[in-house]
Amino acid sequence: MTKPLRVLVLDGSEANAELIRSELQRAEMKIEIERVDSEASFSAALSVFAPDVVLSDHNVDSFDSRDALTILRAERPITPLIVVTGVVDEAETVACIRSGAEDVILKSNLHRLAPSIAGAVSMRQPLEKLTHRQIEVLRLVAEGHRTRDIASRLKLSVKTVESHRGEVMKRLGIHDVVSLVRFAMRVGLITTM
Which residues contact 164 (CB under 8 A, 6 or more apart)? Predict the structure, then answer.
């Protein structure tokens, strides 16, 4: 028996969270869901609830999905965020994706949600093989930092950074830095902005 997928919903409406819950249950996803509606409750839920995926409305009061992405990348860098919103224009959609959102789904198309979640979670499964430090090294390498700069920033030796980078590549089955950067971009560890 597999454990339920922990879904954190950032939305100002309990009714919207119930629509999401119903859709995911209809798709026969085993889920545990929690709804938050503010920056403070979102930050707290990231550490206490420890979600496998975040579903965020684009605007929740003065807190938007891009703000949520910034916090998520600092706290739980391998957790995907999918924007689930009522209406979003093309520029907002592009900005969300460039900021690292996995997908943007309109509430009128919730049938797309379960496959999007499944794809986002499975794509990030290889990251579970990495330690927190290895994820930090992966992100810095993908951002284009030199080994010496990474070592200085993380207060490690150059040899240790090289060792981490090699182990990351081995565990992910990636054989060159260009592919490593592409992977980091695809899973949202770095943005294209």
Answer: 133, 134, 137, 156
